[in-house]
Amino acid sequence: MGQVKGPEGCRTDVEQQQEMTSLNANLPSVQKGSSPHVLTLTPFYPNDRDATNGCFISEPLDWLAKTGVRNTVFAVQPFYRARLRASDSAMKAEWLRYFSLPGGIGLPTAGVFLFAHIIGRVRELHRLQRIDLIHAHAPLPCGHAAMLLSAELGIPYVVSVHGLDAFSTEQVGGRAGEWCRRISQRVYRSSRRAICISERVREQVLEGTGASCRTSVMYNGVDPEIFSPGSEPSSGAPVILSVGNLIPIKGHEVLVRAVAALSAEFLELTLDIIGRGPEQSRLQALAQQLGIGNSVRFLGLQSRQQVAAAMRRCTVFALPSRYEGLGCVYLEAMSVGKPVIGCRGQGIAEIIHHGSNGFLVGPDNEKELTLAVAMLLRDEPRRRSLGAAARDTILERLTLEQQAESLARIYRESVA
Questions:
Q1: 219-251 pLDDT, tens per residue?
Q2: Which of 200, 215, 309, 311 shows the smallest number of beta carbons within 10 Å?
Q3: CA distance 39 to 178
């Protein structure tokens, strides 16, 4: 973790750690021991309709509190979406609705409307409980609103980048997309830090901003208690598990085809898919067409505990996503001690070392995925070895506690 000045100026992990040690040593003691008050602005947060939405934001907050960081959470949504309230399982948050034009065409101006809606509330909060830092999740709309709040109230801000679409140009095209790109560039450059969930994401940010952007990589963390190993049965039908939104980039079609190719050898093989999305009906039709309709189960949304239980029951976890900044579900399955299959060229390739603590295959490569799944299904000792190494990887550097400590350090450096 550390700052970089551009793609050709990236420092090694050792150099970055030395830089952090030097920075912390030079901070005044009052700043080291202070309890910063952070305002979190996020469009993702667990709610009464989906308790898993934004769990990667809510779950580190309790650990942050243990480091002395106080958090006020504003979860925001455009007025045209169904009204939400925070889930009881997450740290208390206030859902705020703001005006915005629907669809991608409204994204470039959404931050301005959000700023206009919350400026009075933030000003009053700042008067009563001084805000030391704003943490915005995603450049639009929250990062844009944070930049405007910073200019108005003099509060510094950091912005997290959670995916490869760092400038929103994949989801928004044409002139609106170009507008999104320019605003996002300003948001990143004006922030105290752009916090990227992987080096792959940081590369995207730096490619669009250059040397004027200060960045850090901070991988998401896992709760190793919720996602703890179970005893894999020595016999029984093999189960492949996949967890993710049912959208084309997640690669579920390739996975269904791989399962069909293996069905003759593994007669009782089952594919369980947790998630929902527009691809479900097409995937169901494909499974029927390939003759495995009864072997593919679509389980819809599940709670965190249900997902963890499904991961403990499965034989192999696979998500052949071709556009993934990191992917929390890979880390969770690794924490459970399962062999995990992801794709090369994605953020998860920074965590999975092929053949050591998981497998990596080519995106959209049905043949390679089929061979990888078959190899794991045939070799139980290999599965156990990979799963144990995967669990060790999480415990060594990817727990929620470790994530919170890194984030608290970034907060204090940004305030200083």
A1: 999 999 999 998 655 458 999 999 999 999 999
A2: 309
A3: 29
